[in-house]
Amino acid sequence: MLTPLRLLALFGFVLVFPTLAADAGDRASTNYLRNWPQWRGPLANGVAPQANPPLQWSETNNLRWKIPLPGKGHSSPIVFGDRVFVTAAVPIGEAQKPVYDSAPGVHDSVPVTQRHQFVVLAISRRDGSILWKKVLREEWPHEGGHTTGSLASNSPVTDGEQLYVFFGSRGLYGLDLNGEVKWSKDLGRMQTLHAHGEGSSPVVYGDTLIVCWDHEGDSFLYAFDKHTGKERWKVARDEKTSWSTPLVVEYEGKPQIIVSATKRVRGYDLATGKQLWECAGLTDNVVSSPVHRDGVVIAGNSYYQQAMLAIRLAGAKGDLTGTDRVAWKLNRMTPYVSSPLLYDDTLYFLRHNQNILSRLEPATGKPLGEPLRLEGIRDFIFASPVGAADRLYITGRDGTTVVLRHDRENATLGVNHLEDSFSASPALVDREFYLRGEHFLYCLAEPAPR
Questions:
Q1: pLDDT higher for 305 or 1?
Q2: Under a CB-based contact definition with an 8 Å cutoff, are residues 339 and 43 in contact?
Q3: Angle made by CA atoms 110, 111, 112, in degrees to the nearest 5
Q4: Which one of 137, 227, 304, 442 is separated from 326 by 20 to 30 angstroms, measured CA to CA?
Q5: Which SS3 state, helix, strand or coil, does residue 7 take?
Q6: Do strands 145-146 and 109-110 pair parallel, antiparallel, or not at all (unpaired)?
């Protein structure tokens, strides 16, 4: 049986009109909404409002292209314009005896036995050809990982002008869209819980690039100038390892950064880094990232215990624990690795890493029907659910994607299978559905109408 920590390092995780490119007007533009510029999509809530991906596919049906990927990575693909961007950790050289051993009693840890190149690739949407490949760093990683993890789990982000790549202990990079490195930052070495890996993804908002650095050492939240990489501010956080991606919410005309973690969910002023509020209520090992709708932030996780809470931003100041700023709480059926999907007036999320889907009213936490079992998925689910064209897409590690109707009944519309294992969350653009597996990157699309 997979234990919860098994999943920690698995993906670059990670929100609503928030973590995006330029100003609010640009983020709401049709062009921006047509792309998938970050790991949870243009609205950072798992929804592609302009996409219409296929209902059915297989290794022989509605497969536009399939290409092998170098190395390994559980970061999700992002898509902008005519390009798909993917990161990977590629082992090189002869395997050697590890220079360290896993800590006693730590489950499912694996040592690193080779040097790795940490790379980013630009891939043509049209035919899957590699447009460019850039090695950003080469080293022998100081920590091992988990049997189900990867050394490239932080998803990249783009504002349509530059590409921002975060390899955690292997550095933070700003590149142009042709692969030229404009700047880089070395933030040091993370010491993650049980050495099970890193996963929080960077976030872009306006001219600011945000990085969360939660680990077993000194934890921080960073803000950088996206053009130069210059540090704007850095605030200390009383936190241990977490893997969630920050969320930026514009509330009453002022953007704030929300970070979900074990000790507290916290809100910070984007301009200064000043902490605005905090709220206890989650449990250990936070991987799932928060979402936002109409002034309510929803954060949840699952490990030894299960927890989810909804925080009202109106009047949020200081410690909100136990106050009426907490709109509702939940202590069952909550997600572990995957993040919720917030689609219109429905909050969807999975039970731990299982094939059980819950549906709630975001404002009240009221259930919208009984939980659904996703027939057809036989393995754990690490990828986050996504939505488009009034449909939900949920992909399991066994290569099966279940397609459901986005309504009160959530009838099954399709059960599709590919011959690979999937931990990364999908990307949806136009009529295309991108899935990054352990070995291949797939572009699934129906033939263009004549």
A1: 305
A2: no
A3: 125
A4: 304
A5: helix
A6: antiparallel
Structural domain 4-100+107-445, CATH architecture: 7 Propeller (2.130)
Domains of the chain by residue range: 4-100+107-445
- Any alpha helices (H) in 228-303, and if so which ranges? none
Average pLDDT over residues 192-214: 95
Show the tokens assigned to 32.
């921006």
Please choose, from the candidates 404, 345, 333, the residue with its C-alpha nearest in 3D space to the C-alpha of residue 371: 333
For 22-53, write each residue's pLDDT tens digit.
344 455 566 789 999 999 999 999 999 999 99
Whether 16 contacts 249, CB under 8 Å: yes
Contact criterion met (CB below 8 Å) for 42 and 33: yes
Chain centre distance of CA 42: 13
pLDDT 10s digits, 281-305: 999 999 999 999 999 999 999 998 9
Examine the pLDDT at 17 and tell me if it is beyond 70.
Answer: no
Overall size of the chain counted in residues: 450
Q: Give the span between the Cα atoms of 56 and 114, in whole angstroms.
A: 39
Where b means 16+ CB within 10 Å and e means fewer, 196-224 reads: bbbbbbbbbbbebbbbbbbbeeebbbbbb
Q: What is the mean predicted confidence (pLDDT) over 59-87?
A: 97
**Alpha-carbon gap, residue 199 to 337, rounded angstroms:** 11
Residue 169 phi, psi (nearest 5): -60, -15
Helix (H, G, I), strand (E, B) or coil at 391: strand
Cβ-based burial of 191 (10 A; exposed 0-12, middle 13-18, buried ≥19): middle
Alpha-carbon span 251 to 319, nearest angstrom: 18
The region that residue 270 occupies, defined by phi over 0 for left and psi between -120 and 50 for alpha, beta otherwise, is alpha
For the chain, first and last CA: distance in Å?
49
